[in-house]
Amino acid sequence: MSLDKATVLHIARLARIALGADEVEPLAAELSSILAWIEELNEVDTEAVAPMTSVVEMRLPRRADEVTDGAPVENVIRNAPEKSDSFFVVPKVVG
Amino acid sequence: MSDALTALSLAEARSGLAEGAFSARELADAHIKAAEGARDLNTLITETFERALADAGRSDERRAKGEAGALEGIPLVIKDIFCTEGVLTTAGSHILDGFTPPYESTVSANLWKAGAVLVGKSNMDEFAMGSSNMASHYGPVINPWRRAGDNAALVPGGSSGGSAAAIAARLCLGATGTDTGGSIRQPASFCGVVGLKPTYGRCSRYGIVAFASSLDQAGPFGRTVRDAAILLGVMAGHDPRDSTSVERPVPDYEAALDQGVKGLRVGVPAEYRVEGMPEEIDRLWRAGAAWLEEAGAEIVEVSLPHTRYALATYYIIAPAEASANLARYDGARYGYRAPAKSLLEMYEKTRAEGFGAEVRRRVLIGTYVLSAGYYDAYYLKAQKVRKLIATDFAQAFERVDVMLTPTAPSAAFAVGEKMDDPVAMYLNDVFTVPASLAGLPGVSVPAGLSGEGLPLGLQVIARPFDEETLLRTAEALERAAGFEAEPSYLSSGGYLSSGGSR
C-alpha cells in the first residue's frame, strides 16, 4: 500500500509532529516502501491463530490501591521547561 | 599499572580488589584516564568522573569494613536510557534535553547497591531505535575496531553502541544495554565483546526510557562470558514496580559456567541460513557447532518456519508500541520545548524538532498501523504472526536445549553506509529479532574474525528463564573460540592522534 501526501499529513497530525512542505513527499515514499515490505505478512495464514498479547505466561499481579510514594510535587515539576508554583505552564488554551 | 588495570576482566579485577592488590580508587582512576584518552570514540554522552572517584572512595571504605558487595569497586558504564538520579539522562534524544531524573532505574540501583562505580552514561541510537549508533543526537560512536589496512571509521552497531564500544576500548569493566530487537547482541558482535539479552521479565524495566514495552529488556556487556554472568546476577530480579517483571529466584549464574555442554542438545535452525549471507559467517557458524560437538554436545537441525516474517512483524509491533510510549514527549513536563503560540503548535513543533529522522519515521509508521481502519490489517496481524514465531521456538525447544546462530549477517560497516535505505538497515537484526519477539534469552559471544580482521559473534538462544544453560553454552563457545584479538584502537594510541578519519 502506498501512502499519498494527504494520508502522511493526517498521520503526522495524529502523531502531533509538524512536517515541513518539503518533507511530505520524501516521507510518503519512505513510509510506503516500509509498508510494502511489511505487507509480506499477508502471505501467512493466521486464520486460526490467537494474537500474542503477553510475552511471558503470567497473571498480572494485583496490589492494594494505596498511595505508596506520596505526592512529590517538587520532583514532578522539577524538569518542566516552564513552571509556576506547583504547575506546568503551557501556552494559553482557552481564550 | 594503569594499562594493566584496564586490561583486567571484571572477574580478575574483583579478585585483585579482594586481595588488596589495588584499590577501587586506583581502578576508577585507570578507567577515567582511559576514558579521557578515548573521547574521539564518542562513547559517552555524560562523563561522571568525579562521581566515579567518590563512589570508589566509598567502596574502599566499605571493603575496609568488610562490607564488600558483589560488584564492589567495579567501574561500569550505563546506557543513557537508564534513569540515574541526579545525572542527565537523554536516551540519545534532543527531546530529553536537560532531563535529570529524580529517581533511579531498578537495574542501575541494583548495581550501585552491589558496590559498582559509575564512569559515565553511554551514547546510543535515539530512543534505542537503530543498528549503527548513527541516529544519536550526540553524534555517532566510533567502533574501536578497524579493517586491516583501512582507516575508515566503522560503526559499533546499535542501539547500545556506546556501551559495546566502551567495553571493547577498555573504558570500563562492564556495561549495561537494552535490547528490543538486537540492541545488545548486534553491537556486541560488531565490537568483539559479550552481550546478553535476558528473558523478557528477568530484569525490571522500571526507570528505563521505554521504546517497545513488550520487547524491551535490559542486559549486560562484558569482555568475557563470566563477566556478563556476574553482572546479570546483580541486574536481574523481581521488582514490584514493573508488573511484567517475574517473581522467580535469581540463580547463581557464575556457578553454571563450569557445567560444560556434555549431553546438551544444540539446535541449528535451517531458516537462519539466509540468502546472501557471507560465506565467512556461515563458516564460523559451522565451526561453532563443531566446537560444541567436540565439547560433548549433540547438534540437531531444527526448523523455525516463520523466521522470514520476524522482521516485518517486529517493524509493526515495535513502532506501534513506540508511537504510544513516545506520546509522553509533549514539551510540557520535561525536556525540550519549541517556542509556540498555541498548545497544538507547541506539541507539533516540539516533536518535529525534538525527535530525529528515524524516530519520527517510526512514530509515524506506528501511528499509521494503529489508526482506525488499519489496526486489524497490520497490528493484529503482526500479533498473530508473533504468536506463530513464538510457537516455532516452543516446538523446537521440545527437541533441543539451546540454539546456535550467527548474531548478525555482517561485520561492522563503515560510518555513513546503509543510511539511505531504512529497510537495509533493519536487516541487521534478522538473526536477533525472532528471539526478541518470543521473549527468549540470547547472548552474543565473539567467535572469530572476518577476512578484514573484524570481530564476528555467534548467538546462543535458550528457553525462557534458562539463562544458566545459555551461559554455560556461551562459556563453552568462548573457550573453544579462544578469541584473543584486540581492537586496533588499543595499539594505535587513539584514532585522532594517529590521524584517523571520523
Folded structure, characterized:
The complex is a heterodimer of chains A (95) and B (502). Chain A has 95 residues and is mainly alpha-helical. Chain A has helices at 5-14, 24-38, 73-77, and strands at 83-84, 87-88. Chain A has a two-stranded antiparallel sheet. In chain A, β1 and β2 (87-88) form a beta hairpin. The radius of gyration of chain A is 23 Å and the shape is flat. By secondary structure, chain B is of the alpha/beta class. In chain B, α10 (279-294) links the parallel β7 (265-269) and β8. At the A-B interface, α1, α2 and α3 of A face α11, α12, α13 and α14 of B.
Q: Please trace the helix and strand order of chain B, writing H or E for each element.
A: HHHEHEHEHEHEEHHEHEHHHHEHHEEHH
What is the CATH domain class of the domain at 5-43 in chain A? Mainly Alpha
Question: What is the straight-line distance between the termini of chain B?
Answer: 30 Å
Question: Mean pLDDT of chain A, nearest integer?
Answer: 91
Rg of chain A, Å, rounded: 23 Å
- Looking across the biggest beta sheet of chain A, what order are the strands in? 1-2
- Output the CATH homologous superfamily of the domain at 2-260 and 409-491 in chain B: Amidase signature (AS) domain
Major β-sheet profile of chain A: 2 strands, antiparallel
Number of DSSP strand runs of chain B: 11
Q: Secondary-structure element sequence of chain A? A: HHHEE
